[in-house]
Amino acid sequence: MTEKNIKIVSFLCNWCSYGAADLAGVSRMEYPADIRVIRIPCSGRMSPKFILSALREGADAVWVSG
Amino acid sequence: MEILKKPRYVREDRCIACGACTEKCPGKFDDGYNADLKTRTAIYVEYPQAVPLKYAINPDACLKLTKDKCGTCQEVCPADAIDYTMTEEKITIDTGSIILAPGFKPFDPSRFDNYQYAKFANVVTSMEFERLLSATGPTMGHVTTFPKLPAKPKKKKDKLLAEKRKDPKKIAWFQCVGSRDVNKCDNPYCSSVCCMYAVKEAIIAKEHAGKDLDCAIFFMDMRTPGKEFEKYYQNAKDKHGINFIRSRVHSVVEDSETGDLHIQYADEMGQIVRETYDMIVLSVGLEISAETRAFAEKFNIDLTESGFAKTGSFEPVTTSRDGIYVSGVFNNPKDIPESVLDASAAASAAGDALAEVRNTLTKEIPAVPETNVTGDRPAIGVFICDCGSNIAGVVDCPNVTEYAATLPYVTVAEETTYACSQDAQDKMVEIIKEKGLNRIVVAACTPKTHEPLFQETLKSAGLNKYLFEMTNIRNHNSWVHKNNPDIATEKAKDLVRMAVAKAGLAQPLKEEKIQVNASVMVVGGGLAGMVAARSLASQGYETHIIEKKDTLGGEALKLWKTAQGEDVQQHLSALIKEVQASDKIVVHTNTTLEGVDGFVGNFVSKLNTDGNTTELEHGIAVLATGAKALETTEYSLGQDDRIIPTLELDRMFKDNDPKLDQVQSALFIQCVGSREPERPYCSRVCCTHSVENAIALKEKNPDMDVFILYRDIRTYGERELLYKKAREKGVIFIRYEVTDKPQVKVEKDHVAVTVKDHVLNQPVTIQADLVTLATALVPRKDERLANFFKVPLNDEGFFVEKHAKLGPAEFATDGVFVAGSGHYPKPVNEAITQGRAAASRALTLLAKKDSLFTSGTIASVDVEKCSACGVCVSICPYNAPAFMTEGRFEGKADVNPVLCKGCGLCVASCRSGAIHLRGFDTNQIFSQIFALGETA
């Protein structure tokens, strides 16, 4: 586990990556607790403004998956 | 009908699939889902995606049920779902139609002594290899030798063997194990799926293990007649470097030291080749088990000799007994798309039989009037779910609840043991009413499974269902951070804060009612189109068939017999009569389509009948435009009347042409125009068709010499029996290479065909009186029609369906369906199956015509901000935005709520910020980002 308190903002597509994160839970896969998921209806919904805003709010990284 | 339900020993109404029971369960048994390559606990769920996701106990492996010891699962179950006293139940159901879909059993190769599957550690079945490749399999996708040993062996002998484990460098697949074989087993048929899955496994194995993995597939005929399959096969050879070796390997010898496998085989030149492989995969066939045969006997339906259900080509999902239908491999070996088509077709056949009593058992739920919350200050209720110990065992739920109560606009924060239980739902309704809540947040499991449930609760409390936000503190938190409870608690707080911020901005959303015009337009009056129309008409829907020719019947009018020997014209004319006699079907012959406007439920099509234009309003469209035989001059076709295409031979048979009596030597050439760079697909129907006609010629005159020149014989499924019969009758099959095609020379007395014989490796010349060319089936490639409905065509001009496997009879465009050879070449029975399937899928929309609504989470345009740039109009994959053509805001964009899928592509690309995505609006996503910036 990381010592520094890292925050990764994750924009996950409802239809694939969000579901995959659900399955990771069902399979009890462990991973670092640094990500905060924002569910979006499709990665097409992503606007560069969201990424810039997340970084401005102190996110260490932004992850868009879809 | 009486059904026996075996006990699950777990109450489905209580099990929440948390998995606590499996952690402590001491009972073990073979994990069938993983091809027995590992064990599972006695209490188990079949696989992670199982529906319903409920656990069950195997009574033979459970210590409590076998020896009355243990009982741990009952102790640890947080939902009190375990019930060891459950017994078998007999359920009686009154049914009008029954659909049988019992599936198949993979062939068990242990009975073959030559491959020593049971004895040699590195000889595996394709099912076992499939699991080895899978990320959820026993090795998490890592292919290794000695896969049948336990991951951590306990026995000394196994431990020694496990030390020899390595990553394989050479893997071979042996095709037709348990298929096309009457010597070592009794399965004369082709299993239809093994060639493709072997190619797939080889490609994936190389992806996992790296390019230097040597993959070889030993086969007799490479059978890839499915849509896009031939290209996949060619890519496997050319791009992935898979070796295809046409040879049947006699036996396997194991190196006792290393476990490597030595084989020897004769190559195409007859030379003996010796090779050593690290692993051998047996491509096992599909078989009907003894249990399934016994099951079929109970229903008193006829089976073929190999155990498949007997069905006719014209009613391809109907068994020998009225009211009983079949689908899937039990109705002949088939791949996924054909199984899905079978399933839809069986539903259509079963439904047609019950059309009179439709909706007599339907019940409706009374609606609660909606409270208007517009303009009210947000009053948010937050419900934190413990999910028994699933969340509360890791996350400090009381702490999170306390925290939630301090957030802005939160009126109530409650902790609940199971938010999804009925009593918790009732309590939620009570709290909403009592405290006057107008926004609800639930922090629990995943919205993908539970959002609809909570939305129903909101509705029953009189709240608009979109005033709801769910955040996932189980699957995305407690389950994946169980060793870090403090961090998980902090994360849960962050997630709740983000959800509350978003919920505060939620607006009540409206779902627009979709008006569905309950009539259907079928384009194409061939077999598939007529079958679709007949099915829809029998369900009471007005159906219009648009046919450009002056008669119904399409290409089937030119066919003589089906693969099963049925007279096509006899059945076809009966079908045409039925269609013409139906008072629900309107046939428009000599009619073409000139234009289409509208969308699902509301199409207006322009028809042109002999120059007269009319408009047709319809809610649904079925495209069944078919395919036709390739016109070519290859092999001197058209230069001599002794060289004819397949359909001409059919005509001669149909008309009992006296010329056929003169024929002493007949020859067929396969793949004329198919499987070539210009048309890189297999036409699917030609092998069976030629074999069938060759048999007919032999039966007409047993002394006739009949030759078939082929590349691979692709008589899939039980069509293989025809191939066998043809060889038994003395039809001579000569294989040729595409690089060395037969030469046809027209002589005075005969046609001389020279071909290089693959056994002799010498050119031989055959003097034929009749040369039949199996010409490719080519689609009509109607780009205009495709544009009318905004549906895609592939490179060759066949329609592209919604999903190659799961949506084979529908388009991505809502309300438009596809059937017949316009989708891909197919024989009579498959065209009819797809016709029925398209009708069945159309019915799912037509049946809901009074209760079809759009989603509330769709895009809408703020016209004041819209600059009419047109980016949204050009970017939308669903054609939902369009420029308004009249009114005050003419020229600005407007989104059609029926077509919008709510993806948000237009919202993200709108440079004026004029488009809002309801439910995922920009301010809502920003609020989540900003909430994250604050610290708990």
TrEMBL record, chain A:
Keywords, sorted A to Z: Iron, Iron-sulfur, Metal-binding, Oxidoreductase
InterPro entries to which the protein is assigned, alphabetical: MvhD/FlpD
A family per Pfam: FlpD
Keyword Iron (UniProt): yes
Every F420-non-reducing hydrogenase iron-sulfur subunit D domain range: 8-66
GO MF annotations, alphabetized: iron-sulfur cluster binding; metal ion binding; oxidoreductase activity
Domain of life: Bacteria
Keyword tRNA-binding among record annotations: no
Protein name, as recorded: Methyl-viologen-reducing hydrogenase, delta subunit MvhD
Gene name, Swiss-Prot/TrEMBL: mvhD3
